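Let us walk through a complete example step by step. Step one is to write down the protein sequence. Step two is to encode the small molecule, magnesium ion, as a SMILES string so that its atoms and bonds are unambiguous. Step three, shown after the inputs, is the structure prediction itself.
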Amino acid sequence: MLQTTEVPSPLAEPSAFRQTFFAAYRWMLLARLLEEKIASLYRGGKIIGGVFLGRGQEALSVAVGMALQKGDIFAPLIRDQAGRLAFGESLLDCTRTYMGSRLGPMRGRDGNVHRGRPREGMFAMISHLGAMIPAVVGALLARRFRGVTGTVGATCLGDGATSTGAFHEGLNMAAVEKLPLIVVVANNQYAYSTPNARQFACEDLVDKAVGYGVTGHRLDATDLETCLRVLNKAVANARDGGGPQLVVASLLRLAGHGEHDDAHYIDDRLRESRLGLDCLKVAEQRLLAEGWADESALHGLENNAQRQIDEAVATTLREPAPDPNVEDWCALATRHLSESSHAE
Amino acid sequence: MITYLEAIREAQARALADDPRVYIYGQDVGAFGGAFKATKNLAQEFPGRVLDSPISEDAMVGSAIGAAIEGMRPIIEMQFADFSTVGFNQIVNHAATLHWRTNVPCPITIRLPSGGTAGAGPFHSQSMEALYAHYPGLIVMTPATVEDAYSMLLEAVAIDDPVIFCEHKYLYYHLKADALPTEAMPTGKARIARAGRDATIVTYSAMVHESLACAEELALEGWEIEVIDLRTIKPLDTDTVLASVARTGRLLAVGEAFPWGGVTAEILARVATEGFGLLDAPPMRLNAKDTPVPYHPNLWGTHRPTAKTISARMRDLLRL
Ligand SMILES: Cc1ncc(C[n+]2csc(CCOP(=O)(O)OP(=O)(O)O)c2C)c(N)n1
Ligand SMILES: [Mg+2]
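Step three: the predicted structure of the complex.
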């Protein structure tokens, strides 16, 4: 069942491929610079709580976002800034959520990576790892009930999250129902400080696909082209009725678990290995080597991205913080059943 | 000086040193020393006994139960209290019922980094004590001081029942003491944190400190507020509460958890049923609001009780 990168690619046509690659690179760059800005706002005390970066994981994430279409479901996780952007999340949704703006999708109620627009197919993760998989399964089930065809659901998680019961239950359920689910595991070799050797004992996480009876894909996620090809294939398989797809990508997170963490526990040999390559730099070198862009074009892209980011941040900084006195302290949709005034 | 967090580390070091049956299992507790550093250096000091677990709360608790049956005394660290819900089944259905069903005790300690801090949001802020206290067969500890964090954790490991140890993250670094305690109050006994005669605040964990600040503020206005620190919420020291209400005639119960049911409701129910005649005014309570814990500090600061809102509620009570 294991499918590797040799599969014929829907991106075979050279100019289409070049366009896709270029678009992906732009999202990656935007995500990288946006996250750098978020990190600096955090260091400057403008963001309270945690900041979790996807540095080094942009190629994989963007490939997920780009393989999906409008109308699909995407449940990203903590390191999916690039995929979120490619799927259609605005910069403002990110900055507003991090800074707790009342105008953001989470209205200051939830923060940082815990954001989404479920009605637009972008689920808002809860922290509990694995929990989003069964939720996407249910959404796909609902679409089957409603007779909606041709859409898929994708969700991302880390190596560590594969140890949860929810991962097992969700993937198994999707397999039983043969749903168009794509589960993307970013195997960055660590879950916080815990190395894979303390997380699972199978040789390769993709081996789990066989156990669930789903198609497995394995890839090196430092290479953007590989990511685009494999994710396209996996999503196409799911869309064409091939059932759930488990994608396991090898890479390294080039940041701390969160910005509070110096990641000293990451093995230097891993950092120096292929996995330690920065996917953004690799993609950039490819652009230059193929002659798809020159230095000045890249520079232009960077300036453009930086300007968009600065604009989003400036807008957000001017926006009102949530005001507890006008906040609607009601957790229910059925308002008349709310009893909050009695209880507190 | 020793912090609340260091006291928790020291208690675990002592438990590991004193009892070969003790081991610690949790995510990142090994070489890394835990997400909050509550197990700092313990893996080095006690090789093979402080182990990183996979992200598998259900199995973390389940395995502790099995190990306890075999005579071990596991300490399970949840990375955050909020994630203990993933192990809920094993805690409330297995650990809590084991002794009652089989006469075999289940001496496990489950550490829950609990409560809110600014910016932590809905899934890294919860206070879960009432949920666990609801289940027969569990002991629920909620230490409010450095001394209690130390001595109660040692007691938790020694007790032959499953103990849910709710350690408050806000107190981790904020609270300091001169030294570790050499003696401890018995488990299940509440402490009078501040004596007074005009009204009683019954509370626990971080809210003890907000309540003490309220008492301080009202003292400037001439009121003497008694503050009771429950220390354990299950068992709940009803006698100490009733004795205090007998002296003051007024009761305000304060908790950081969600309002429905919960510890403050339990306190009011007990005082109303067992001490109705002691009350000079209707008993009151103050909890967090009936919504998930919000992310933005503005909202968070209003969601949970603070010295300011406790004082306001107390002024209402004193006027009655
Ligand atoms: C059920 C659950 N337990 C514990 C945590 C705390 N936690 C947050 S992230 C994390 C590590 C995640 O590692 P991995 O899944 O590999 O993702 P990565 O951070 O490496 O991208 C842990 C233990 C959690 N969020 N959910
Ligand atoms: Mg990981």
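Step four is interpretation. The domain at 14-343 of chain A is CATH 3.40.50.970 (Rossmann fold).
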